[in-house]
Amino acid sequence: MVGLRSRRQDRTLLIVLWLFTAVVLVIGGLAVSGILLVWGTVGLLAAIFLTYIHVRDTRGQGDDLEAPATPGQDEDPAAPHDTDTDTRTDAEESR
Questions:
Q1: 5 Cβ contact partners less than 8 Å away, ≥ 6 residues apart
Q2: Three-state DSSP class for residue 5
Q3: What's the CA dihedral at 29, 33, 38, 42 to 10 degrees?
Q4: Distance (Å, rounded) from C-alpha 6 to C-alpha 57?
């Protein structure tokens, strides 16, 4: 699976987005420019949304409210197991 989760390196991009948004809003306010205020507001909404996603993706594993599901939890322990499927490597499972 492709790793699309936010990483710690993405924090720099978020800081740049917040700074750029602040600059656009300040210039728009000082120049009383409606278009800059509109784009500053769009940037502000985007920065808030992306910050939420970044914080959600980078928080520790212990912060999850749900316990992770145990593999094979629904299987009958007395049932025979196929040893070929139990010993797959990560490379085989990713195909």
A1: 57
A2: coil
A3: -60
A4: 6
